[in-house]
Fold:
Amino acid sequence: MKLTIKKEDENRIKFELTDANYAYANALRRTLMREVPVMAVREIDLYENTSSIFPEYIAHRIGMIPLKTDLKRYVLPEECCGGNCSKCSTILTLDVEGPRTVYAEDLKPTDPNISPVYGRIPIIKLAEGQRLRLEAKAVLGKAKDHARWQACHVTYNTSNGKDFKFELESYGNLPAKKILEKGIKILEAQVKEIKQKVK
Structure:
């Protein structure tokens, strides 16, 4: 089995997997989409909301905003204290008063390496005199637990059942090549663990 990169840029990568099979190709695709961890807002402390929008809706919108991710700096909450320290979580604050539209770029990170990927994602529109003030806690997570942590979208096709052409598109949390490298390491570790259990 061989993996060859055909084309790449920051957020997209095309690669070919040769002398493989459907089981491995599908396992790789699922691992890339479900197992590669990225940062996302998991919970919000809402201190003031005089808008007409329910807090749950605001929390959902913020939770789905892609955040830049630093895998060297942070660990998964389950490998740490559950998401209550600086090793596994970080805070973004928001304090905005209308009339204006609130965008992702209005979220102010305490760690500049963990900030919204796309600043102009709209969150809510505030009318005159309305205010939104909150703290959002971001943690590493995996898409198998919630879609907010999905790092990319991956497709593949084959003409003969043993050579697979993949296309990976990152949502911007991590570079496409980094997602591919991390996904391969995760899949290799999972295969190794299964082999050890079989013995």
